[in-house]
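Structure tokens please, single chain.
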Amino acid sequence: MKTRISTILLFSAFTSFAIAEQATTTETGAAAPASPASTTAAPAAAPAPRTLVSINGQSITDADMLAFNALQGNKLQLNTEQGQLQAMNQLINTTLVAQVGMANNLQDNPQVAAAIQMATLQVLAEVQINKYLATNPISDEELKTAYDKQFSPEKLTEFKARHILLDEEQQAKDLIKSLDEGKDFAELAKENSKDASKSTGGDLGWIGRGQVVQPFGDAMAGQEKGKYSATPIKTQFGWHIILVEDSRPQQPPKFEEVKDQFSTQIQQQRLSDYITGLRNIAKIDVPGAKEKAAAATPTEKDAPAPAPAATENK
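Here you go.
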């Protein structure tokens, strides 16, 4: 599933709003943009914010509008006149209510102040993430390497397999002995397997190595066609006996079809490494943590006295 990193200040997506000389009056009495915003990419240097409306002396700019819509989840289409009008009205309403809150000194409430601080941190973090990704682009070479690793020939082979799943290793060994004596694999699976596939004789159909847990996949890939495993295979589910009935190569998807998926995976790993690096060089103190750790560690004083040495009865 593709993950997208939201951008708070979307100057790269929209240019400044155009304010008509003959402004249209909205139901709130505010001037609204007369034409849709351009969707062409902005130049490297973002244009200076332009005032759209003044509310009780507080200027609201096109940058404010973009940020406001982004914080709402970009629900309004700002490249349409209707979307701009809706965003303008919502921002005016929000500003008016916030001004009343400011007059009532709500910003001095500790919980409100904390919420404002956390919102600021969130915005700064998201913008910094986007800046980091922009300055550390993923190359086609990286994508191709990831593609070749994921779709290597050994990983593209599919196997038509059956298995018998058991709780105990000895059970599996006993059934392997029965198979050596000529018993039918499917019948033994129906009689003994604890897996849901027992009703079909342990049939798993066509499966790839990456579709199963590693011990199972490794054993299946190394199994000769038409043979069953000579020793039980241990996984977190129990003990398996695996029969590989057939195998066939798979055709990998075209590179262009999965390129975006690999880009997302590499981007996520890159961000994880970036944040790990920040944590490694950061000084992070948890009040009382050292004292709790010291209290949990027994000292020489707290250690039990050694037992007296045994003496020989005389």
